[in-house]
Each structure stands twice: as C-alpha cells, then as structure tokens.
Amino acid sequence: MRCQFLRQSIGLSAFSLALVLSACANPGREQKAQEQESADDSARPVTADLSRASSRIVLKFRETERLQQIKGGLVGIAGGPSLTPLVEQPGRYMIGPLKGGSYDILLEAQKLSDQPGQDNYGVAIRISGITVQNDQDTFLADVELRPYLHIKGAVKLSGAAPQAGVEISIPQTGIKTTTAANGSFDFDRVPSGHHTFEVRTSGYTTGVFEKRQFTADSTLPTITLVPQDQNLAIGAHYLGAPLPQLQSFVVTIHLQRPQLMNQVRWGSTADLSSAAWQPYQSSVEVELAADQRLVYVQYAQDGKQLSAVYPVTIPQE
Which of 39, 48, 163, 300 could form a disulfide with 194 if both were Cys (CB 3.0 to 4.6 A apart)? Predict the structure, then answer.
C-alpha cells in the first residue's frame, strides 16, 4: 500500500492545517507545503461498503501522557470506523479503513490536571475537511485537544412567546440541548472546531446557524423561527407590525437563501460592497436608525457567486 503522510498541526486560533508531505520511499524526508484551511463537510465519501477500503487517518496527540479515555471517530457516518491505538506505532492512533474522500473527525479525552489536587477535565476537538486519498495514509501530527467550550444563545418564535423545549443541535454529532421557558439555551460541552447549529420545534420551520468556527466560549445571535405555513420565498422578509415614524428600532429580518449560499450581508443601502460577510443564519436582528425603513440583504457562496440584492421595506404606522 502506498502511503502519504500529511502532518497537520491543529492550532486553537485558526485550526490551520500545516501540511508536510513525505514519500514512502524515504519517510524521514519532509517537504513543507502550502498551509490550507478547510471547513467544508458537505462533500462526503461513499461509505456504505468499506470492504475494499485501505486508507487510514493516523494521529499523534500533543501531551499524550496527560490524556486518558481517548476516543473519537467520523462525523456524520453511521457505523464508520472509530479511533483505535496503532499497535505497531506506539503513541499513535488511527481511524480506518477508509475510502478516498473528505472527512470530519471528532476527538475527545480526559486530561490530567497539571495542578496538584485539581480534577481531570474533558478536552475535545472537531477537525474538518481532512482529505484522504485512496490507498494512502493521512498523518495528523501534534493534535491538541482543548477544553470543551460553553456556547449559549436564545430562540424566539415569530408571533408567539418564547417556549421551553425548542431543540438546538449540532447535526451528526449527537450534541443537543433545549431551551428554557424564556427561550435561552446553553451548551457546556462543545468541542473546538467548525459547527453548524440547527433549531427545531413543532409547527415552525427549522432555524439554521451556518457553519462557523468556535475557538472560545461564545454567544450565538438570537434566532427567530417562522411558522411553517408562512412559506417564505427566497429573499428577505419582515413579518412584524408597522413601526412608528422617526424612532429607532431593532427588527427581525427573516432570511431565505438561494440554494448553496452559505453567507449573508446586509445594510441600509443597496451598495453592500463594504458590508462584511457573515455565516448564514435564518434570521438576523437589524438596528434601524430613526429615519431608516429599508434593509438590503445579499447572499453568497464562500464570498463568491453573489445573489441579487433583496430590499426589505419596513412598514410605518
């Protein structure tokens, strides 16, 4: 079997993948390659039949001596191979066999405290967009597991009071929670990495926070769900009551993106060239100046393939 070792240093600030290729004929020589970052888990290999798969993801952890109960596996592939120690290479682990494709992996462990008398603590990481070639190993070196993150936010319901029991989840991971009676939610064990969040409750369309990177405790923007019978067209929509004139307000704009678009930007004029792209989410809170009653919204796929600019008129009393 041919092998291609891919050294990927996982850093908290950017999750950059520093790639070092080495030929099987001379595994001691390493050539520095271009840094790359990938957070796209939309492309998935066919995994129904792994009987002829022979590739592996091989990992070496930072501070392995302080890690216990190490576990992990593929994200979104039911029944796929899990993390196992490599007997022939002590201190290394592997996930396989795999076919060529793009994979996300989720790794977790308990870490021994370096402070006397303190308890062990949970650490984890999600690594996205690992490219595996057929009949080759991909090597991730110096993988650092980080303490779990604390992610919180709030969910509103259009035309109704907040409610308990709305489900917020990270798809394909089993990580989920529900809202309290005031609509707030709180995750306390989210791995560092790139995650999409989905929001679901009966009678309402599914809310989405498109994939974004998490490296520290965070608060997600408030999201508002729309009743299923609204059937919003592609574009942007205001569903609230008319507003008084010459007063500033924060309004909810409901977004319905064109297919494959994963970013959104908005502003008070149709020229949005200076507005920053944000990861898509199914609603946004927009602050209106006293004399502003128009909002303009545009979508993109990774900053390219721009959509039309959609105007939203806020009615006045």
Answer: 39
